[in-house]
User: What shape does this take?
Amino acid sequence: MHDEGIECSENRVARRMRRLGLKAIQAKRFKVTTDSNHSKPIAPDLLEQDFCAAGPNQKWTSDISYVWTDEGWLYLAVVMDLYSRAIVGWSMNRRMTQQLVCDALVMALFRRGFPRGTIIHSDRGSQYCSKRYQRLINHNGLRCSMGRKANCYDNAVTESFFHTLKVELVHRERYTTRHIAKTRIFEYIETYYNRQRKHSAIDNRIPMIFEKAA
Assistant: This one.
């Protein structure tokens, strides 16, 4: 509203919303997707909940979430650049496999020009500890980082993105097929979230515009 030249405060907006009977959309119950009960090697936590970055491609985070369709679950893996909060890589599949997270990371690498030394942070899920994913990290000169077991706060920024995605899109729609869900999520990430939606962590600026102005 301020960008449109309308002077108002949060309290005034809250009063108007109450008069109109408008309420914020509430998120639904959380579903655990992390399988950390395995014997695969894990990496140290290089972020330690420091989600700030001085420039692009210094710190990336990755995580997996899920979307229900009439055909069954659709799993979504994303890679976020902590500098701008842009989603620089993503992948969707009916199965939550190591290929899912590898595809998301490969997209991020191609789109960002294969940077070296970037921290890539995730949880301790079996997909992220898999040999294929670890080989991808090592081959491209990335630095692997993993949060503590069963601590969602160690990857809170990516969890926050999933919360936003579901509140603003997923929980407002019904998907009869996985293909429809994929199309809508693609549109949300690439058309709206990265290029139109303002993010409070970057002074209410748009991720892609924020990066270009750096």
